[in-house]
Automatic annotation (TrEMBL):
Residues in Nitrogenase/oxidoreductase component domain copies: 31-378
The species this protein was found in: Paragemmobacter aquarius
TM region(s), chain numbering: none
Pathway connected to this protein: Porphyrin-containing compound metabolism; bacteriochlorophyll biosynthesis (light-independent)
Gene Ontology biological process terms from the UniProt entry: light-independent bacteriochlorophyll biosynthetic process; photosynthesis, dark reaction
Cofactors (names): [4Fe-4S] cluster
Record note on quaternary structure: Protochlorophyllide reductase is composed of three subunits; BchL, BchN and BchB. Forms a heterotetramer of two BchB and two BchN subunits.
Catalytic activity reported: chlorophyllide a + oxidized 2[4Fe-4S]-[ferredoxin] + 2 ADP + 2 phosphate = protochlorophyllide a + reduced 2[4Fe-4S]-[ferredoxin] + 2 ATP + 2 H2O
Record gene name: bchN
Keyword flag 4Fe-4S: yes
Family: Belongs to the BchN/ChlN family.
Keyword set, alphabetical order: 4Fe-4S, ATP-binding, Bacteriochlorophyll biosynthesis, Chlorophyll biosynthesis, Iron, Iron-sulfur, Metal-binding, Nucleotide-binding, Oxidoreductase, Photosynthesis
InterPro entries attached to this UniProt entry: LIPOR_BchN/ChlN, Nase/OxRdtase_comp1, Protochl_reductN
Protein's UniProt name: Light-independent protochlorophyllide reductase subunit N
Gene Ontology molecular function: 4 iron, 4 sulfur cluster binding; ATP binding; metal ion binding; oxidoreductase activity, acting on iron-sulfur proteins as donors; oxidoreductase activity, acting on the CH-CH group of donors, iron-sulfur protein as acceptor
Length: 430
């Protein structure tokens, strides 16, 4: 081993009760290790140590685009042939590499041992290793473990697994506090906190926190609101700690952001006059930005392949706020408590599918011939070659798209491929 919108639609008119097409065939998935790329930027005193192969190291290096003079907060403890063959004590080697890392990087306060396909294949018990190393290096460093393996998971589940691993270790509290759950770019997080503060809602805690000293406490009086729709395990872990979930549409677009804020405001007794005063100006800006960016989307159809687990709230945004028609909304996993409020706001009509049988879904997509297809990287190029216009789902995770000030940018991510196609066709016909 070596180190290297208000919910105005009645349920009867929404899609929450639509029969779900459940598929359990071949899937196109992307590795859960990818979540490290945004998590290591968010958590400023954390380090993510992937216990895996050189392929894992190359994936992270390529995905992050780390420059040679950068000092990233992630690395790979590479499993060599002797590790895979059982000729070396992998735990002893891991302990040695962690010691080397921490002696070189005293700024690390949280260390995540991230499982990969190779470490899981050889049954390396990283949970026990994390417990042992936490005892060795406490109180200066807390060591966690989660799996980023791509064998069974989609790529956004890396964040879910990471946050769920942290929840049992959070301190207890009896205070009534709001916990906002899900990694946001710092500028978007600041916008969210500013809106909540202007309404008089506080204290507000974030998970993940930017630094370990700001980690939240959790208890029976904690209420939490999710800002990412793929946090199924984190939702369950917080519920086990006694916290209460505020069910709401996700803050994508003007209507989604307003509905999310309204749900939080109602929970904390904010009056309508205060709510309207705080949200009026950013709502107006968001509506104007969406209208500018979505002209190419009105009347167009969209087909979602399951990839990021953002599909349901994004479909709600595109159909309710951008004038599109959804043909099929595929998602890797469907969680009623998390996705239900957005499903309530999607008019009946589209097929709702969970899981994937990729060949069958490709047949449905070809038959429907949508104006825009949202899919993973592995499908985008083949579909483009067949003349379909696509949007990479992964770009929607790496780009700031939450809350009012990003609403126009979100619409632009979908209108840009259609605009590009129209320009290319105009050029070809000239």
């Amino acid at each position: 081993m070596s180190l290297d919108l208000p919910a105005t639609l009645a349920k009867s008119t929404g899609c929450r009760d639509t029969p779900v097409l459940k598929e359990r065939g071949q899937r196109e998935v992307f590795c859960g290790l990818t979540g490290i790329i945004w998590l290591h930027r968010k958590m400023q005193d954390a380090f993510f140590l992937v216990v895996g192969s050189r392929t894992c190291a190359h994936l992270l290096q390529a995905a992050a685009g780390v420059m040679i003079f950068a000092e990233p907060r992630f690395g790979t403890a590479i499993l060599e042939e002797k590790d895979l063959a059982g000729l070396a004590d992998a735990n002893a080697e891991l302990d040695r590499e962690v010691q080397r890392l921490l002696s070189r990087r005293p700024d690390i306060k949280q260390l995540f041992l991230v499982g990969s396909c190779p470490s899981e294949v050889i049954k390396l018990d990283l949970a026990r290793a994390a417990e042992r190393l936490s005892g060795l290096h406490s109180p200066h460093v807390r060591v966690y473990n989660y799996s980023g393996s791509g064998i069974e998971t989609t790529f956004t589940q890396g964040e879910d697994a990471c946050l769920a691993a942290m929840v049992p270790t959070l301190a207890s509290t009896t205070a009534r506090e709001l916990l906002v759950v899900g990694a946001l770019p710092d500028v978007v997080e600041d916008q969210c906190l500013a809106l909540l503060s202007a309404m008089g809602i506080g204290p507000v805690r974030m998970l993940p926190a930017r630094r370990s000293g700001d980690l939240p406490a959790v208890g029976a009086n904690t209420v939490f609101a999710l800002v990412q729709p793929f946090l199924n395990d984190t939702h369950a872990a917080l519920t086990r700690r006694g916290a209460t979930h505020i069910a709401a549409p996700f803050p994508f677009g003007e209507a989604g952001t307003t509905a999310w804020l309204r749900a939080v405001a109602t929970e904390f007794g904010v009056d309508d006059a205060t709510f309207d005063r705080v949200t009026a100006a950013p709502r107006a800006r968001a509506l104007k930005a969406i209208a500018t960016q979505s002209a190419e989307l009105v009347g167009k159809s969209v087909f979602f392949f399951p990839d990021s687990q953002l599909e349901i709230p994004l479909a709600r945004f595109l159909t309710r706020e951008c004038g599109m028609t959804a043909i099929e909304i595929g998602t890797p996993y469907l969680h009623d408590a998390i996705h239900g409020p957005d499903l309530d706001l999607i008019a009946k009509g589209p097929t709702i599918s969970e899981g994937q049988d990729v060949e069958k879904q490709l047949d449905r997509q070809h038959a429907a011939n949508p104006d825009l297809t949202v899919c993973g990287l592995g499908l985008a190029n083949p579909l483009e070659a067949k003349g379909h216009t696509t949007k990479w789902a992964i770009e929607l995770v790496f780009t700031p798209v939450h809350f009012y000030e990003q609403a126009g940018d979100l619409a632009g991510l979908f209108s840009r491929p259609l605009r590009r196609k129209a320009l290319l066709q105009a050029g070809a016909n000239a």
